[in-house]
Amino acid sequence: MSSNREPLPNLETNGNIPFPRRHFLWHSGGGLGAIALAWMLNRDRLHASTSDSRSAIAPHFAPKAKRVVQVFCAGGVSHLDTFDYKPDLEKMDGKSLEGKGENLGFFGQPGRLMKSVYGFKQHGKSGAWVSDLLPKLSECVDDVCFIKSMVAKSNNHTPAAFQMNSGFTLNGFPCMGSWLSYGLGTENENLPAFVVLPDPRGLPAGGSINWTSGFLPANHQGVAFRTQSNEPVPDLQTPKHVTASARMADMQLLAAMNREFADGHPGDSAFGARLRSYELAAQMQTSIPEATDLSMETAATQQMYGLDEPANKGFARNCLTARRLLERGVRFVQILNGGSFGSPRINWDGHENVKENHDTQALTMDKPVAALIQDLKQRGMFEDTLFVWTTEFGRSPTTQGIGAPGRDHHPTAFTCFLAGAGVKKGMEYGSSDEIGYFAAENKVTIPDFHATILNLLGLDHEKLTFYHNGINRRLTDVHGQVIQGILS
Amino acid sequence: MPKCLVEHHSAEWSFGSFDLKGNQKNPTMLVKIPPSAVYAVIAILFCDFVSKANAQVDFARDIIPIFQTHCYECHGPEKQKSGYRLDVREIALKGGDNGEAAIVPNLSAKSPLFRFVRGEDEESLMPPKDSGKPRLNSDELAKIKEWLDNGAIWPDSLSGQKRQASTHWSLQPIKIPILQGGSENPVDVFVRAKLLESSLAASPEADRRTLIRRISFDLVGLPPSPEEVEAFVSDRSSNAYENLVDRLLASSHYGERWGRHWLDIARYTESQGFEYDRLRDNAWHYRDYVIKSFNEDKPYDQFMREQIAGDVLEPVTRDGIVATSLLVCGPWDQAGNGQSNKTQRAITREDELEDMIGVVGQSFLGLTINCARCHAHKFDPIPHDEYYRIKSVFEGVKHGERSIATAEETMARNQRQKGLEREIDIASHIVSSIESDGAEQALAKRPKGPTELGPIPFAKWTFDGTPIEVMPGELKDGAVVRKLDNEHGVLQLPKEGAFFKTAKLTKDIREKTLEAWVSLASLEQGGGAAISIETGNGRVFDAIVFGEQHPKKWMSGSEGFARTKPFDAPEETANTKSFVHVAIVYASDNSIAMFRNGEPYGKPYTPKTPLQTFAAGDAHVLLGYRHTGGGRAWLTGEIKQAALYDRALSHAEIAKSYRAGGASVTRAESLASLSPDQAGRHAAALAELQRNKKLLSELPKPPVSYAGVRVQPPNTMRLKRGDVNSPDEEVTPGGLSAVFEIEHDFGLKADSPEKDRRLKFAEWLSDARNPLPARVMANRVWHLHFGQGLVGTPNDFGMSGDRPSHPELLDWLAAKLIESGWSVKALHKLIVLSATYRQGAAFNASAASVDSDNRLLWRYAPHRLEAEAVRDAILVASGQLNTVGGGPSFRPFTTTEFNATFYTPIDRPEAEFNRRTVYRINVNSGKDPLLDSFDCPDPSVKTPRRGVTTTPLQALELMNNSFIQRQANHLAERAMRSAKNEIGRGIEAAYQMTIGRKPNDQELKRAMLVAKERGLVSVCWALFNSTEFIYVQ
User: What is the ipTM of this complex?
Assistant: First the structure.
């Protein structure tokens, strides 16, 4: 899975000084190697832990999954029109909503109850109900575990997206991918540990805010790949006017200068780390284009993902790229489905007409995501890869405005699903009430959801901490309970 | 005052020798305690003595321990289940959420507290069975009973209202230790003492070349020029170094360097963050204020006061107003503030206030007060209610732009504006009355026609086939013209998405009337507009909207409902086949009135936001569409006719227009029928009108800044568990009791004026007896000079933060800061003139084996340049730095508007983009890959210390970023110019311009080979990539 390379010096003996590890992890300006070697920690490491509560030493126990791929559907997918079948809602279609308290919508114009705009059928051996909107994902139900009792804190897009990604509804908190990069490092240092594949149709609102490392060191930031570009990462390629041979010679000059400097300053291992960073940079220049080159894939694979279909080829490329990145040891790949909230919307925010909106969005999402699940499965990657499908929140059982065919945001019940390493198959966990308004049974908060993902990766969510301005911060804040019921 | 403070505290006195729970270890030491410091302590001791003397069961001795063991976990400082707590007398007595008194003095049998702990029934037993806590034993029960029956005496000192003073180090008064060391710099005395304890010694002084590079980056963030280096190296005078320090501190670049440090702490951003991430065009005033304050060496206590309350500190100045931007220069959730769910909106606001309290507490006090929002602080002595008392201080501060003109400037401008508006109204009235006379005259000349005509519109849209003259338009996305007969037609909008869009306005429109004849396809629809006037990007608009906020009602739509209020009129009932005449009048006095079928529709109102100007060449009109980019924005139905008037019509005129069915003569027709006299008066009035409009448009806009707006807030309530739906008792504005030397109650009422709260807080904060600000700031300055602080957690001087490595040194620096009149520049000098600062950076294996972190300062630790310094140093070396300071930020990206703002970074060669990096606009989602790779922090994060990482992506940026390529070229040209095109000297110059030294023979030889083969630019590229360049030693 990783390329042949010289073994890197062990952290414990790197340089001439034994460093207390916590200083690598959270002291930034400590001088010496602490300054510069932080990235080196960003590798697969299974070191003995220290007693310092501030440091995050991981994994805490044997992991079931080594890496994660997360599909995030921006805008808020209607649980009622996809995975959460509500026969009672059909009966109550057109009636007024009663007895559910303060209206939870964003726009505050609740209309009448509206049954799903799609038909539902049972699928697979598990008999899971899925709407006709998602014919391909319907075929995957026996491989996945639905959580139908998800609850979000906010009914507002960006805070809800932040919460799903970082556990907090505010700007500036590290994303799950950053936490995993920080906690587990990378398996392949020739690729970033945390890669984001934005929807080619446009960035989500807030753009790069959505994959920030927050207060974690910048090396844990998500790296957004522009998979439609021939330069997936900015400044990856040597400028056109510089020939390869000239660059090679220049790199030799630079290496000589930096080596002399490092040799002239023995003990400061930061300077050695700089030398190494250039070697890795040179390797990335070939490893990233290689990892994102889909021409290596067979025609059958390309077709399975739908690369030949105009409606979804951009997103399909990202799903296939994700598989290639996972194969090469990227720790966390996030695939965004849907971008921002302009007009017309390119996400799942079906305020005006949920059917029209979801028809369009599902056309891009259904087939490639189903293909990714099947592909991971058939290649045996589910042995150690976790697949996660998420959105911001659900959509209201009532229409938005009387007689209108749209649904407003709805945070108190929605559906997500997981598949792969360590997760039960063909299962449904939790449920919403008779009309999908509140989570009813086995409510799952986002901290619970995150705690479970960390658990699958061998991380105790209460121990994966980083000190920042007075608090040992966690992905799960002060909440979160592992959902034991879905672990295989 | 500072002197007085310092003199009172003798070196041997230590507050730490007291256990403030009442067990003094050495009572004789009481006499040494300065009276001001420990009233609270004495009071506690006194009460304890009294109670011990008079009662058998002593509350402090016997009862508190029981509460601590059995109750506090759920009913104490951290948690208050059912709103009940036993650490605060008032609540302990009065009871929790159920409203029943929990303690009835003298009657244990009637006290629910006793019933619960005794466990009369298992259901209500306390502590509950499943809590895992032991139930009270018989001895404990007996004590409780006796205490209750003897009147439940609970001394004032332990009431929980007056909190006990903390013994935590940072909260103790600053004291100057006694110094020994003669004329030596005290910094070195303190540092040496600690080194000696570990048998270590400082390193010898760094050479001059190293020193000038170090001090230049440190104080001004820029490298020294080769000439400056050579001059310093050869300066034989004894005060050469001090002169250098003075010169750098006097440079305007100093403020740019240290201002940037402060902006990190202030989480300064120039965009909203969250969903829209819109640019804040006018946030930069704060950046300039900070830079200026550092350059002027503004006393730090004043700097603090201004950032809390500068807008209300007399005399109010522009700087003072701008300073308060600190409170609001972080992210802001516009969508969250505008949404309709009340709970979620309240949470958004509470989050905003937490951010504000967080930045104030961490920046100035080094305390994470924000951690006490949901419960008492877990580590520090900050009770839950004090979070809310401080919240009450800032409760009136909201996000937004405000004028930064002084009251006089504003008044003068307003008078001028009102005068011009009056002139315009008069001239406009003359013009329209002559035109309507002309219209009458034109009508009289016609053979036959309608008996009545409406006023003359600026532009009118009909669909009967007659050409549209002023602003033609086009049918969009399904809109069609339906012919009624040969002469008549209507605009048909059969489905959502269909609308009619006109050409751009041909003149600026301010006061105006919008008018349309509409037939609605359904009365159930909502959000669409009959007619809308909007800016080119759709961000600002005024529109006649149907059913958006209230079903079936018309309203005046505007962006974010900025100028919208309900007209308070009945629901629309018109038959969907019939046409309704609707008109909204936007008058120059900012009033907005609506009319339906010629009659007033509800009540007019005046919005808070001013009348907008829609600019010629930019704005346009939409029929059937609320505004570009809006959700649920389409109207379905038909529009027979619509018009835009460039003035406010009267009720009579509108009624006339309604009765005339929109018929009017054209302006041209009217003017053609004027008499020469009329025409002359018309031309004169028109000229006057145009002249005044021009003057009005040229009136300079009042300067605004993103300094936040102020409102008089409702009284603040403590929120149980931080839950917006669980308000508890009302609180009054106050400070922290943990700062025990100063009264933390401000003596203000819960409804006191907003400004008084902040003034009091500013006073409390900057009181020289408050030991935190001086310690915190002294540590920041130290931290930024040495790469690590005496306290390693600059924003956290609480229990979970670091302990100081050199406590006496920190106190000495803090005292000196106060003593100097809070001069930060004086503090710099104290530090950088020390031998500790001037020592060499060489590694020493044996010292490292004792103190690997260099906390004891056995050397000056090398450190990497920050992102800004890397970029600025490259620009200095290449000779391209544009030293223009201040003003709007440069914007190295393109923006795309799609409901939200998106930023795409671009690299531009123009001089504007070569300004210092501190002038780069600091937006949340518009990150620059080069700066990003050098750990430029997420602007929304309060960053007291930056991360330092070395990554392959960083290497890629230095290798390939087009900025680096271009500057390497500039450097090569510059070096060759200075070397008169002699390659060897060119290489020497490039070395000196980047790393401040000449190459040695071997380096020169190697570089010559490269330069001859591939040009000097290759050497320059390598220098920019070299470790020696991006590290300071």
Answer: 0.83
